[in-house]
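Bumping with the actual sequence this time:
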Amino acid sequence: MHNSSKMPSIDDRTVTTYPEAKLQHTELLKLNIIETAASIMQEYGPEAVTIRRVAEKMECSTKIIYNLFGSKEGLAKQLFLEGCKLLAVAFQAVPEQDDLKLYLSDVAQAYWDFSRDYTSYYMVMFGGAFSEFKPEEESLQAIGTALQQVITIITKAIEQGFIYEKDPLLVVNLVWASLHGTIHLYLGGHILNEETAKTLYDRSVSNLIHTFFRSDN
């Protein structure tokens, strides 16, 4: 029986060129290095992350890491960006609610949970854990993307007349600064008891919602 189908010719197949394969290898290697640095950071804290220590765990030379990231600052930037992705995922996992006050409260709780579950990332992003790294435009844009959920809630509340203030970014920054302040005091050892810190945090969330949302809503 004659089979009318034919084998694809070599021209029909996807061919990975050497430059493409080399790029794929480089990107995979960078990802593995970032994951290795992140594992060290999560287990021992940001101060434990050094190029030498990452290289030892990767069983490679420090030169390879310097070639890929340029410096410890370059590696810290990638950890910063990875933290932004994790925060965005945490916010996106919060179920959307029609009641914007409850929705904002739930997102605020997700922010607290992120600071506890990913403390090292939080300190890289907001606590100056790497003195070599200072956020620049790309990093600040990543923070804006991570906070998009909060911006959306505040913007909706303003559009629907629940909040008098007309500048959503002002409200977001005021909320963010207040919540970050409590977390940072706790992580910095100024509030010794986590239960006390969480009580202060919850009170701050309630006060902020009460301050910004109109009492008749």
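The tokens above came from a reply further down the thread. The longest helix spans residues 18-44.
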